Prior knowledge:
Blueprint: H1 7-29, H2 60-78, H3 130-133, E1 152-163, E2 174-185, E3 190-201, E4 211-213, E5 216-226, E6 233-243, H4 247-251, E7 254-256, E8 259-264, E9 267-268, E10 271-281, E11 283-284, E12 297-309, E13 315-328, E14 340-353, E15 361-373, E16 375-376, E17 379-380, E18 390-399
Amino acid sequence: MKRTKPYVPALAVLCAALIALWAADARAQAPPTKDLPDMPDFEEPEEGAGEAEPADEKPAEEETEAKEVEEEAEEEESGEAPAEGVGPAFGTNAQPPGTFPDPEPVVVPTPPPPEEEEEGGGAAAAGGDEDEISDIDLDATIPTAGKKAKLFQIQGLYELHFNVISDDHSASDWLSFYMLKANLNVTKNNQLSLRLDMEQRYVADPGESGLWFGDIRLYYSRKFALPIPKFPIPGKLSFYLTAPTSRQSQKRSYITKPTVIFALAPSLGPVTLVANGYFRYNFVKYAESDHQGTPNTMLTTGFMFQLIYAPLDWFAPSAAWVSTWNKPYRTRENEVQPWKENYYWELALNFSIPMPEKAPSIDISLAYAQGANVLEDGVYRLYFGKRDQSEIYLGLNMIY
């Protein structure tokens, strides 16, 4: 039998002891895994650390922020001024390291001031703004449906009147009325106008055509607005002179009839009230004419109220009342004549025909009207629906 060398068992025992010590030390350093919660992946612990720590790697954004912080620190140490808008560390404009910066401020553009309302909307602006004053066109049958006035404007009107009750001379119960008016808008608020009108009667004396021309009228008109807070009222002031081209003026020796008209047209929603007041003084050649042997009219004044309800852009029923007072000249015997009063009212259905923007506006009206002298046989009397004082008329109004 071969004997083993005495130092070999000793080396084996020493190696076994070293392995046992290394295993015991490894078990002492290893953390208990069964009590740890679920955690994200960690990098290997650094040498000498008792527990594993998160990796030192940072996302690309954090690395960029860290570089920016280091650059800012270097600029401060070098004495360079910080960039505009950067304050002290952890101030209102600076961010602490490791946090995300605030998003860029959103610049909200300042909205432009509201534009003025254009025509078709109702009440005028205080102070006489023309765009809103022109919302009310007193030449239109439906004032709020009128088109915006241009430099030059032409208005044409045709009305066919006939009495409710016809008499033995039925041809005299019909009457046609024609009117042509040209407007020149000198400025936005100032207007010059020329008006021609005539009547066509279907009964005429021998040698006459039945066409009776009216007086030529030359107008000056000024638009305005009453500056009432939150409810400005558009209006119009007009003055006109006449040329004696009518049959009545020629037979009664009228020279001219200067007239002042003051009109207001407040609107509230679909309702418009047109209020007119006027005053006229008649210049005559003779105070009393030989035509009828009665004094000529010296003064005329009156008012008109018209209420228009427009539930639709193309339809508007209306009601109107007119009262006038006439003061005659003295007679040849220098006798003073009393005032004479007349009344007139009407109910109408008005239709605005839809037309292209560049085409003329067209309005059609169908109305029942009544009018007469208030003083009848020395007694003041007012009638409503009296047939022998009533008429029906069809109107066609065009503005271009």
